[in-house]
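Let's sit down with a protein and look at its sequence and fold side by side. Go ahead whenever you are ready, and we will take it from there.
>
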Amino acid sequence: MLIDIGGRNCHIIGESNAGETVIVKPLGEFERLLIEDECKLISELSSMPFCMVAFEVTETDLRPAGAEDTYQYLEKVLLPYIQDNLHPKRLILGGYSLGGLFALWSVTRTDAFDAVFAGSPSLWMEGWNEYADAHPLKVRYAYMSLGDKEECTRKHPFCIIGDRVRLQHKRHETQLGADYCILEWNEGGHFNEIELRKAKGFAWCLKTHPSPPQGREPLESNDPLRS
């Protein structure tokens, strides 16, 4: 179902009463034709029922020039709509590439989500390390993945992605506990089997996990996704 929520096109896939979990994700233009295939793959990998709410974005919406407005839409428009109309007990936020970066950044700012999925997140963004050191995640579970060929390039800043993702995973282990986060390596580069990679991440987040210890509060720091 395609509907307008607060002036932005949103895709709602699955029955509103299909379960207690709603997956929320930014939806780039290149993903829109494959969103139903992604949901089918998630269902094949997980027996847990879910409903997905995907809100359309442009690349600019996920970069520093537009990310703050996108986050404000998520927090003040989309999440209230979901709570009022779908009544979820669990919320999962996720995305791929710039969407993965946006998801990680967003869950340092809101505690509305239970889990986060970040597939090949663009952690090469300038200022991310300093921000992430001072702003722990406000979720209980975190899944990241990366292609094993993505760091095999001389192009800067993309060549640093492997080290950045490994470091981010160590943060997750410290903040959440090693049993409540995962870094999965996939074969290939950034554009290999994207839908399957996303489905694997969301399926992991859908699983029932033991309750982890409460995390720490974030500190003040410069924010790389605020213009």
Observations:
- The beta strands are 2-5, 8-13, 21-27, 51-56, 90-96, 115-119, 141-147, 181-186.
- The chain is about 35% helix and 20% strand.
